[in-house]
Write a structure and sequence with these properties.
The structure is a single chain. The protein is about 60% helix and about 0% strand. The chain has 2 helices and no strands. The protein is flat and about 60 Å long. The N and C termini lie far apart (about 65 Å).
Length: about 80
C-alpha cells in the first residue's frame, strides 16, 4: 500500500485561545456578556458548540480590531519621532 501525503489537503490548523486577553477588562466584559446570552432553546451539546463558535469569532474580531488600533497608534508615534 502506498500513501501519498503530499496530495492531502490540510485545513487552516488549530486555533488556540490567547489567554493573555483575560487580563484585558474590555475583553472580559465582552465575554461575560456572551456567557449571559441564552441558548436555552438548544440542547446542551449545541449550546456548547454555539458558545465555542461565538467565543472564537468574538475573540478573533477583538484581536483584529485591537491589532489595527495598535498599528495606527504606532504609526502616529513614528511620525512624531521623524
Amino acid at each position: 500500500m502506498v500513501l501519498l501525503l503530499s496530495d492531502l489537503d490540510r485545513g487552516p490548523g488549530l486555533w488556540h485561545f490567547p489567554d493573555d486577553l483575560l487580563e484585558d477588562n474590555d475583553f472580559v466584559t465582552m465575554i461575560n456578556t456572551l456567557l449571559c446570552k441564552s441558548f436555552a432553546d438548544l440542547d446542551p451539546m449545541l449550546q456548547w458548540e454555539a458558545l465555542k463558535a461565538n467565543l472564537k469569532a468574538k475573540t478573533q474580531y477583538y484581536m483584529k480590531f485591537h491589532r489595527k488600533q495598535h498599528k495606527s497608534e504606532l504609526a502616529s508615534l513614528q511620525t512624531l519621532l521623524h
